[in-house]
Amino acid sequence: MPELPEVEVTRRGVAPHLEDRIVEDVVLRREGLRWPFPPNLRELLAGRRILGTGRRGKYLLLTFEHGTLIVHLGMSGHLRVLPEGIELKKHDHFDLVVRGPEGRRVLRLHDPRRFGAVLWHDHDDGELEQHVLLRGLGVEPLEDKFSGALLHQATRNRSAPIKQVLLAGDIVVGVGNIYACESLFRAGINPKTAAGKISRARYDKLAEAIRDILAAAIVQGGSTLRDFIAVNGQSGYFQQTYFVYDRAGVPCRNCGTPVRQIKQGQRSTFYCAVCQR
DNA sequence: AAGCCTACCTGTTGGC
DNA sequence: TGCCAACAGGTAGGCT
């Protein structure tokens, strides 16, 4: 589910309910997800004020004075903000209960496949950016540092296909399977092309495509394919604007040639063999 | 070091 | 309708 736009939509959704609120309770309903939950989370957070929210790649960050709560939604996770007393659903694993002007609110993490994570980074343990999960991440695609020049320079020694290099996340973060396919279509680049063989001019186009597509997806509330919903329960709409993703055999919106589906590194790739060379 | 593969899970879908 | 295999948006970690 959640690539960068969905995580950013989630962050923007939860932010007004969390910022400057005091945590009153933490409820853990299992040992953990991908990794164990910090067992002392309630002691760490109860009575503490949430100073702000952030995002690094697909990691959602809740900042406290003494540390940062790191939340990852994995493939199937979503967060909702609910009034107290809403009935639990299967796979509701974690609640953060906060008090605000409108009373108590519950931030509830739902994650059927349990590839998500909730971790704590204590400020005594050094810089957040040096956290083991964050330190290897590439640049943020919506920040100024991201450019065709950066993509070009960073890929000179990469022989892997551009699609897989984008997904790897060590050069640029947040571009998952959907947005990698869509961006390569927009830039007219065949996903199988070796990353190191793509020209600077084509990378300029790709960087622009990634930026534009991610930004547009955020405006649309992200993509709702199977189960993504925003904090308020609304679906995203970006999937209606897909050019290639999930459209195998359907005529290309640009040239009419049927969209192809192939496997790259066990993941589906969708592309137009005519528009993408 | 790049690049490939596996593993972690449940839910949905499509073929028979 | 039921059964089963294949597949799904992410990514760390282990191997070559």
From TrEMBL:
Q: Which UniProt keywords apply?
A: Glycosidase, Hydrolase, Lyase
Protein EC: 3.2.2.23, 4.2.99.18
Keyword Hydrolase included in the entry's annotation: yes
Q: Does the keyword Lyase apply?
A: yes
Name of the featured protein: Bifunctional DNA-formamidopyrimidine glycosylase/DNA-(Apurinic or apyrimidinic site) lyase
